[in-house]
Design goal:
alpha/beta; Aspartate Aminotransferase, domain 1; Aspartate Aminotransferase, domain 2; seven-stranded mixed β-sheet; four-stranded mixed β-sheet; 13 helices; 13% strand; binds pyridoxal-5'-phosphate
Length: 427
């Protein structure tokens, strides 16, 4: 069936009438190439089908939640079984305790866990807990780091007032001097420091921090008696079967989890050490759907698969295979890629592509050949992918490079004002 997106275009038109902008947030296609589908009809394993019936090998994995494949049979069976007993009830199910015990047993620094719905709930609770513990106000975050869409951390300032950010101070990721300067700026009013496991901002190269940097954050937090918070919402369980900074030998006080912990079932978590137990207990944080049991049952089963399968090694092997193949292809067609970050969470940008027209045209070509790649956001491999999927991807990417080379001088400038504004910010 030839690729087309007529049904998607119709839906986008209908959506604009009844949904502001037709779609909003990170899953909006407003910054993507114009032919990227906004609406999908189904997903299974590593595959995704758009409303026009086009099938893709999906490298976004729902922007992270899909770790074991869409509709994983073990995880969804556990969810269905729980659904027969109850989901959102007058109080939580016993599976809440099972899930908290599982997280505490797997995450070295964790002695307790609290549950919520989205990653932004967990990061906001972590900020509140850090302030409750210290009785101070200032929170230090890396420049451009994404911790959610709440007023204190959203990258879009529309509707946000200066007061929402008055107590947020920034540092350059992986830069100890700027972190020390931020601590001085806090002037004795510091409550906590946030760090993502590695730098994974949109429109820029990813960056793995040095061990020295992670140790310096730990040392500063100890000296100031404030919380070191690792925001593992995006990378959690994709780098390690423990908190991601365990790889660097540094334990935070609090870490935030979401996305993959129940393989797409809606749940997130804040976990922490004994020292922060009383502070976590003292805050008021809740939501009508935070204690629903079905996602918790899915989470318990997801954690079992994390402990008992080779999913992590497998996604690294597949990521390495993809990275090496793309590197070779790009060189053969006269392009040079910036492939950064862990190979199982790859960011793929082009050298000498200031307005990203090459990257946008390449992913657009790949889309027509059945592979959903992202031009400016890191991607996520998942454990439903196989070596055959990577080989099929490489066949598609080779065709995409060939078309890019043939069109090279005719590729139009990237004129999307939203993209140009983000590019300016990322520089
Ligand atoms: C590092 C990080 N923190 C927090 C969030 C917010 O999570 P959510 O969108 O589930 O609120 C995200 C989402 O992408 C994230 O990547």
């Amino acid at each position: 069936m030839p690729w087309s997106n007529d049904k998607n275009s119709e839906l986008v038109e209908r959506a604009r009438r009844v949904i502001p902008g037709g779609m909003y947030g990170h899953e909006s296609t407003a910054l993507l190439p114009a032919d990227f589908p906004q609406f999908f009809s189904r997903a299974k394993g590593a595959r995704l089908w758009d409303v026009d019936g086009n099938e893709y090998i999906d490298y976004m994995s729902a922007y992270g939640p899909n770790l074991f494949g869409y509709g994983n049979s073990d995880i969804d069976a556990a969810a269905r079984k729980q659904a027969e007993f109850g989901d959102t009830m007058t109080g939580p199910s016993h599976v809440m305790v099972d899930l908290a015990e599982a997280l505490v047993s797997m995450i070295s620094h964790a002695d307790w866990a609290m549950f919520c719905k989205n990653g932004g709930d967990a990061t906001t609770m972590a900020m509140t807990t850090a302030r409750a513990y210290s009785g101070r106000r200032k929170i230090i975050v890396a420049v451009g780091a994404y911790h959610g869409s709440q007023p204190w951390c959203t990258p879009n300032r529309t509707g946000i007032v200066d007061d929402d950010r008055r107590n947020i101070i920034t540092y350059e990721y992986n830069n100890i001097e700027t972190l020390e300067a931020a601590v001085r700026q806090a002037d004795g009013d510091l409550a906590g420091i946030f760090a993502t496991p590695f730098r994974h901002e949109v429109f820029s190269d990813q960056m793995i921090p040095s061990v020295e940097f992670a140790q310096a954050v730990r040392k500063i937090c100890d000296a100031q008696d404030v919380a070191l918070i690792v925001d593992d919402v995006r990378a959690g369980f994709r780098l390690a079967r423990d908190c991601s900074w365990s790889i660097l030998g540094v334990q935070p006080d609090i870490s935030c989890w979401g996305k993959a912990i129940a393989n797409g079932h809606p749940i997130s978590s804040m976990v922490g050490s004994h020292r922060f137990y009383a502070a976590a207990r003292s805050i008021f944080a809740t939501g009508s759907f935070w204690f629903s049991a079905v996602p918790m049952a899915a989470g318990v089963e997801t954690l079992r698969l994390i402990r008992e399968t080779r999913y992590l090694e497998q996604t690294v092997e597949l990521g390495d295979r993809l990275r090496a193949g793309l590197h070779e292809q790009a060189a053969a067609f006269g392009f040079s890629l910036r492939q950064t970050g862990p190979s199982q969470m790859p960011q793929i940008l082009f050298h000498e592509d200031p307005d990203m027209r090459l990257g946008y045209a390449w992913v657009s070509n790949a889309l027509k050949h059945g592979v959903y790649l992202h031009p400016y956001h890191n991607m996520f491999l998942n454990a439903a992918m196989t070596a055959a999927d990577i080989d099929q991807t490489l066949q598609a990417s080779e065709r995409a490079f060939a078309e890019l080379k043939a069109d090279r001088t005719r590729i139009p400038a990237n004129e999307n004002p939203l993209v140009l504004a983000r590019l300016k910010l990322a520089r």
